[in-house]
Amino acid sequence: MGNFLDGKVVAVTGAGRGIGRAVALACAAEGAKVVVNDYGVSIEGGAPTSEIAEAAVKEIVAAGGEAVAVADDVSTMAGGQRIVDTAVERFGRLDGVVCVAGILRERMLFNMTEEEWDPVVATHLKGTFTVFRAASAVMRRQRSGTLIGFTSGNHQGSVAQANYASAKGGIISLVRSAALGLHKYGVTANCVAPVARTRMSANVPMELKEIGEPEDVAALVVYLLSERARAEKITGQVYTIAGPKIAVWAQPRELRAGYADGAWTPDKIADFLPGTVGTDPMPLLAQLEAMAQAAAAQQRPNA
Ligand SMILES: NC(=O)c1ccc[n+]([C@@H]2O[C@H](COP(=O)([O-])OP(=O)(O)OC[C@H]3O[C@@H](n4cnc5c(N)ncnc54)[C@H](O)[C@@H]3O)[C@@H](O)[C@H]2O)c1
């Protein structure tokens, strides 16, 4: 056991499996008291069971740590509140929340139903809000705390996961809003975009070139929750961690601007925009086109 998080109380959602479980175990091993939340659902979000959260708590306790299970659904306000209340009632304070819970319902946009859209956005985006909302009220009073959201490289867009990509983009904006709104209360907010071997990443239809283990992601989360990161005033950031790689994402900003002489008209814009303000090409679209070309070349009969 280390002491990176000695004396801290941390709540982790989706902490029964995959990355969340590794985060909860690592926090406990570094001295934190942990609230283990997991609704215990299938990858699509069905068949909930409390056994998943309870199993992670048993593992933590068996290793000499302190933890309590909350098997609530993070997409409800009551669930988010119960996670935070449990931390305060059982352990007296709340220093960090890590919102890892997530589900997938993949479908092309033109076929996606409301039943595929709503639960995915509710679990990821609202499920981060419900916990941040309740936690930030406690942390504002404490004048300290750390909020961590989980996004994905897919916030850039995704062929068959418009629901997931939209939720993950929303989480980045929620984290940046939290970083801005809670700055004066000593509360930091950051986002992690992981790539790690779990049942969720096993679902990705293409080979992931850069991938690591849930424990790699847990090491970054422990650091972000620690006084070492707080001393560096790290807030409003998005970090990718994929095995040995850690990367920081750029803040969104205007790339190029142009100004009209008088009011814009569609005609003036058509003459002006392409050669000046232009576009910022999508890296993922270029990747998709390269893959389509490679597939077409493979199918072409040898000359
Ligand atoms: N694994 C990767 O490579 C990868 C890549 C990008 C983003 N992510 C993100 O990391 C997070 C963890 O992913 P993972 O791969 O460990 O997934 P996982 O499926 O192994 O674990 C997710 C956990 O969340 C729980 N959960 C689902 N809905 C819940 C709800 N409503 N309330 C509480 N708990 C709920 C599940 O029961 C499950 O135990 C997710 O937010 C995911 O989108 C993962």
Walk me through this protein's architecture.
By secondary structure, the chain is α/β, with parallel strands linked by helices. It folds into two domains: 240 residues, Rossmann fold; 49 residues, no CATH class. The chain has nine helices and eight strands. The chain has an eight-stranded mixed β-sheet with strand order 3-2-1-4-5-6-7-8, with helices on both faces. Helix 4 links the parallel strand 4 and strand 5. Helix 1 packs across helix 6 and helix 3 packs parallel to helix 4. The longest helix has 29 residues. It is globular and about 65 Å long. The site of nicotinamide-adenine-dinucleotide has 33 residues, from helix 1 and helix 4. Nicotinamide-adenine-dinucleotide binds next to helix 1 and helix 4.
Condensed summary:
This protein is about 45% helix and about 15% strand. With about 300 residues, the protein is an alpha/beta fold. Strands 3-2-1-4-5-6-7-8 form an eight-stranded mixed sheet, with helices on both faces.
Query: In CATH, what is the homologous superfamily of the largest domain?
Result: NAD(P)-binding Rossmann-like Domain
Bound molecules: nicotinamide-adenine-dinucleotide
Rg, nearest Å: 21 Å
Q: Span between N and C termini?
A: 63 Å
Structural class: alpha/beta
Which consecutive residue ranges, at least 5 long each, have pLDDT under 50? none
The number of helices is: 9
Q: What is the count of structural domains?
A: 2
Name the overall outline.
globular
Please tell me the CATH architecture of the largest domain by its name. 3-Layer(aba) Sandwich
Largest sheet data = 8 strands, mixed
Write the CATH fold name of the largest domain. Answer: Rossmann fold
**SSE order:** EHEHEHEHEHEHHEEHH
Strand order of the largest sheet: 3-2-1-4-5-6-7-8
Pfam family, one: adh_short_C2
InterPro entries: KR_dom, NAD(P)-bd_dom_sf, Peroxisomal_Beta-Oxidation, SDR_fam
Family: Belongs to the short-chain dehydrogenases/reductases (SDR) family.
Organism: Streptomyces himastatinicus ATCC 53653
